[in-house]
Amino acid sequence: MSIPKAIVDQLLEENRDHTCLGHEENCVRIQAVADLPTRFGEYQAIAFWSKADQKDHAAFVHGNVFEQEEVPVRIHSECLTGDAIGSLRCDCRDQLVGALSKIGELENGIVIYLRQEGRGIGLVNKIKAYHLQDTGLDTVQANIQLGFRPDERDYAIAAHMLDSLHVQSVRVLTNNPAKLSDLERHGIKVVGRIPLVIPPNQYNRQYLETKQKRMGHLLGTEESSMLEQDLD
């Protein structure tokens, strides 16, 4: 069962003239909702527009998540090279497919797709970072040399999207503990984590090792299955 039409109409009406009092610069609005049958199951595509970055973002919703507790959520940042082209330098496409497949088998869940290419540095800078990595730098070193932090992403927009859908609490499909703390900082109740570990290939092994050793991602073999973990 998807979000019922009456609730969809309610959400669209709520967002028609929606403003965030005191936080107008970070306002996010639902713009459109449509059914989206996929190879991973039945989804609804919900298009958002963000005043914060002047970009469109999307939530792909399986089942009814309106006012639900412990909703499985994957927050996925855009990766053109991985998601669309099939790059082997990262694990982005495998994580996206894994999340859509997993959530498609559950009662409900959401895949949020944020337009934060290259950990928030944009496509051009990501390709520049790739060039630096080709000379021997890791992903953290390359970003720093370009004048960025190791990760420029922010999840305030994702938090607002979850609020707009009236989601009460979430279980996050992620290996990145910083993503959980950032969601909580923006007022989202996080009650669990679902690991989403992808086996390395010959091209992304160093990339994954850097995420684990330098960025705190949880990629140990003991977490190689997608078993839920409750948070204390």
The structure class reads alpha/beta
- Averaging pLDDT over every residue, what do you get? 90
Number of beta-strand segments: 8
Biggest beta-sheet profile:
8 strands, mixed
Give the low-confidence spans.
Answer: 221-228
CATH top level class name of the largest domain: Alpha Beta
Helix content: 25-40%
At CATH level 2, the architecture of the largest domain is: 3-Layer(aba) Sandwich
Could you say which overall geometry the principal axes of the C-alpha atoms support? globular
Rounded to an integer, what's the Rg over CA atoms?
18 Å
Strand order of the largest sheet: 1-2-3-5-4-6-7-8
CATH topology of the largest domain: Rossmann fold
What oligomeric state do these chains adopt? single chain
What name goes with the CATH superfamily of the largest domain?
Answer: GTP cyclohydrolase II
Describe this structure in words.
The structure is a single chain. The chain is of the alpha/beta class. The protein folds into 2 domains: 5-116 and 153-205, GTP cyclohydrolase II (Rossmann fold, 3-Layer(aba) Sandwich), CATH 3.40.50; 118-152, no CATH class. The protein has 9 helices and 8 strands. It has helices spanning 5-16, 80-84, 92-104, 117-120, 123-134, 139-145, 156-164, 177-185, 205-215; strands at 28-38, 41-50, 55-62, 71-77, 109-114, 170-173, 190-194, 229-230. Strands 1-2-3-5-4-6-7-8 form an 8-stranded mixed beta sheet, sandwiched between helices. Strand 6, helix 8 and strand 7 (190-194) form a beta-alpha-beta unit. The longest helix is centred in the middle third of the chain and has 13 residues, at 92-104. Mean pLDDT is 90; it is low at 221-228.
